[in-house]
Amino acid sequence: MDAIAKFEELALINRVVTVLDNHLGISDTTIAECFIATARKNPTFNKFKTALHESGAPDLDDSLLSSLLRMITSSTKKEDDKIATFRDDKDEIRAMLPALAMPNSSNPLAEFEKFIPKWQEEQKAAPTDDKKSSKRRSRSLSREGTHKSRRSRSRSGSADRDRHRRRRRDSDERDGRRRRSRSRDHDRRDRDRGRDRDRDDRRRRSRTRSPRRREKVAEFPEEGKIYDAKIQSLTKFGAFAQILGIRQKCDGLVHISQLSNNRVKEPADVVQRGQAVKVKVVKIDDSGPQRKYGLSMKEVDQRTGADLAPAEKPLGSDAVLGVDDQLFQYDRPNYDPGASTSTEKRKRVRLSTPERWELHQMRGGGAITHMEQPDFDEDMGILRNHEDESDGEDVEIELVEDEPAFLSGYGKMNIELEPVKVVKNPDGSMAQAALMQSALSKERREAKTKVAREKDSQKPRGGPIGSKILDPMAVNQGPIEEEEPPNAARKREEPEWRRHLNNVGTGKRNLLSMKEQRESLPIFALKDPLIDAIIANQILIVVGETGSGKTTQMTQYLVEAGLTKRGKIGCTQPRRVAATSVAKRVAEEYGCSLGQEVGYTIRFEDCTGPDTIIKYMTDGMLLRESLLDPEMSQYSCIMLDEAHERTVNTDVLFGLLKQAARKRPELKLIVTSATLDSVKFSEYFFGAPIFQIPGRTFPVEILYTREPESDYVDAALMTVLQIHLTEPPGDILVFLTGQEEIDTACEILHERMKRISEGKTGSNRVPELQAWPVYGALPSEMQSRIFDPAPPGTRKVVIATNIAETSLTIDGIYYVVDPGFVKQKIYNPKSCMDSLVVTPISQAAANQRAGRAGRTGPGKCYRLYTERAFRDEMLPTPVPEIQRTNLATTLLQLKAMGINNLLDFDFMDAPPLEAMITALQQLHQLSALDDDGLLTRLGRRMAEFPLEPALAKFLIMSVDLGCAEEVLTIVAMISVQNVFYRPKDKQEQADERKSKFHQPEGDPLTLLAVYNSWKHNNYSQSWCYQNFVQVRQLKRSQDVRKQLLGIMDRHKLSVQSCGRDVQRVQKAICSGYFRNAAKRDPQEGYRTLVDGQTVYIHPTSSLFQQQPEWVVYYELVMTTKEYMREVTTVDPKWLIEFAPSFFKLGDNTKLSNFKKNQKIDPLHNKYEEANAWRISRVKKKIYNPNR
Question: What average pLDDT does the segment 639-649 reach?
Answer without folding.
Answer: 87
